[in-house]
Design brief:
Radius of gyration: 25 Å
Structural class: alpha/beta
Oligomer: single chain
Order of helices and strands: EHEEHEHEHEHEHHHEEHEHEHHEHEHHH
Distance between the termini: 58 Å
Strand content: 15-25%
Number of helices: 16
Number of strands: 13
Shape: elongated
Length: 390
C-alpha cells in the first residue's frame, strides 16, 4: 500500500486525507522527511499551517523537494489565490489541494499522483503480451496461459492475483471460454483509476471461480467498442494494473494502435506472437509488427508460438521465425475437436487434469513444471522398488 507523509500535527487533516482516498494509502504525520523512510510508492503533503510565519513558503517547499528524492510534493493550503499557488508550483510542488476542501477535491489530486507514484516505484507484476492475427486463438491461448501461470505460483504468492485482459471485439472470446458474464470493462476501469486498487479489482471484476483468475474485457460485456478511450488511458491503466496484480496477461486482440502496442511491447516481461503455418497468417503478423514499429532487439526477444502445429507442413516454425525476425520458437499442437468442445462447454483446457500436448506446451511457455500424471507416479514408485531390490 502507498504511503502519504503529511508534514503537520493536524490529525483531523490526516484523517480527512485518508478518508478521501478510501483506504488506498496510509497517512503518517511527520515533522521532517528522512530518505530511508521513502521506500516504495509514496508522496509528501506539506501543511501550509505548519510552516512558521517567518519562513518563506518557497524556501520550505524547496527544502522538502530536495529531500523527497523525486517523490511528488503537494501543498495543502487555504490560500487558493493565483499568486501563492504559482509560488508553490515554481518552488517545486507537484500540485496544490485545498486544506479545508471536500474529500472529492482532495482525492482528485492525490489519487492521480498516487497512480503515478505506484507506476514508477511500485512492485510491478509480470506482464505477458499475446499478439497474433487469429483473435479467437489468441484469446484461448492467453486464457490458458493466465490459468497455468496461476497454478504455477509459489505457495507464498497471493491466491487469485492473476489478471487476464482480453481486448477482443466484438465480444470477448475469453469470457466465453471461461463461461463468465462480464459487466465491467476497460472503459469502467479507466473511469475508476483514481480509486483503483487490488481491493476494488477483487470486488468488481469478473472472476473465474475454479482458478481465481480475474477477467477484464474491452467491451465490458456490451459487445460494442467503448467510446472515449485514448491510447494514453489504456497505457496508464495497464501500468496501474501491474501494481495491483502479480501476473497480468494481455491479449492484444483487436488493438491496432501502433503507439499503444509499441509502449506495451516495451514494458512487457514477455511477448508471445501466435501464428499459424500459412503464408497469409505470416503476412498478417508481419504487418502487425510493422505497425508496432518495435526495435529489432524487441522483435528478436519475442517468442513465436506456432498455432495448430503440424509436423507434416513444410512451412515449419524455424522458417516462420526467420521470416518474421523473431528469435525463439515453440510449437503449439492442438486437438481441434477437444478445443472446440472446451470452448463450447466453457471449461478451459488448463483446468483439465491432462490437457494433452497442447497444455504441456503452454506450461513450457509459462515456465511451469508439467503436472505429474498418476501413471508417471506409479512408474517412478516401481523403479524405486526395483532399484532397492538390486
Amino acid at each position: 500500500m502507498a504511503t502519504i507523509f503529511l508534514l503537520s500535527v493536524d490529525r483531523m487533516l490526516a484523517q480527512r486525507i485518508e478518508e478521501s482516498l478510501g483506504g488506498r494509502a496510509t497517512v503518517e504525520l511527520a515533522q521532517s522527511i528522512e530518505r530511508d523512510a521513502l521506500a516504495g510508492p509514496c508522496l509528501i503533503v506539506i501543511d501550509r499551517a505548519a510552516i512558521p510565519p517567518e519562513r518563506a513558503l518557497s524556501a520550505a517547499i524547496g527544502t522538502v523537494v530536495q529531500s523527497a528524492g523525486g517523490r511528488p510534493v503537494v501543498l495543502a493550503t487555504d490560500e487558493m489565490e493565483a499568486e501563492p499557488l504559482l509560488r508553490a508550483i515554481r518552488a517545486g510542488a507537484s500540485d496544490v489541494v485545498p486544506r479545508g476542501g471536500e474529500g472529492t477535491e482532495i482525492a482528485a489530486v492525490l489519487a492521480r499522483l498516487l497512480n503515478d507514484a505506484m507506476a514508477d516505484r511500485g512492485n510491478r507484476g509480470r506482464l505477458t503480451l499475446v499478439l497474433g492475427a487469429d483473435r479467437d486463438a489468441c484469446a484461448m491461448v492467453a486464457t490458458d496461459m493466465a490459468i497455468a501461470a496461476g497454478q504455477g505460483e509459489k505457495p507464498s504468492a497471493n491466491p487469485g492475483s492473476g489478471l487476464l485482459i482480453d481486448c477482443t471485439l466484438p465480444t470477448s472470446a475469453a469470457a466465453a471460454y471461461l463461461d463468465l458474464n462480464v459487466d465491467y470493462g476497460l472503459a469502467s476501469a479507466v473511469g475508476d483509476m483514481d480509486r483503483l486498487d487490488a481491493s476494488l479489482l477483487a470486488s468488481t471484476l469478473a472472476r473465474h471461480g475454479p482458478s481465481g483468475l480475474m477477467l477484464l474485457t474491452f467491451d465490458g460485456g456490451t459487445g460494442a467498442e467503448p467510446a472515449g478511450l485514448t491510447p494514453g488511458d489504456l497505457a496508464a491503466l495497464i501500468r496501474l494494473l501491474r501494481n495491483c496484480c502479480s501476473d497480468v496477461v494481455l491479449n492484444a486482440g483487436s488493438l491496432r494502435h501502433g503507439g499503444l502496442l509499441r509502449e506495451v511491447v516495451a514494458e512487457a516481461t514477455q511477448v508471445e506472437l501466435l501464428c499459424g503455418q500459412t503464408i497469409r497468417e505470416i503476412e498478417a503478423c508481419r504487418r502487425l509488427l510493422d505497425r508496432i514499429g518495435a526495435e529489432r532487439e524487441r522483435v528478436e526477444a519475442m517468442r513465436l508460438l506456432v498455432w495448430d502445429h503440424l509436423p507434416g507442413v513444410l512451412l515449419d516454425g524455424r522458417r516462420m521465425a526467420d521470416a518474421l525476425g523473431v528469435g525463439s520458437v515453440l510449437a503449439l499442437p492442438t486437438d481441434r475437436a477437444r478445443m472446440r468442445n472446451a470452448l463450447n462447454a466453457g471449461r478451459p483446457l488448463a483446468m483439465e487434469a491432462d490437457g494433452g500436448a497442447y497444455m504441456s506446451a503452454i506450461r513450457r511457455v509459462c515456465g511451469v513444471a508439467p503436472k505429474t500424471r498418476g501413471i508417471d507416479r506409479v512408474r517412478r514408485a516401481m523403479l524405486k522398488v526395483v532399484e532397492r531390490a538390486s
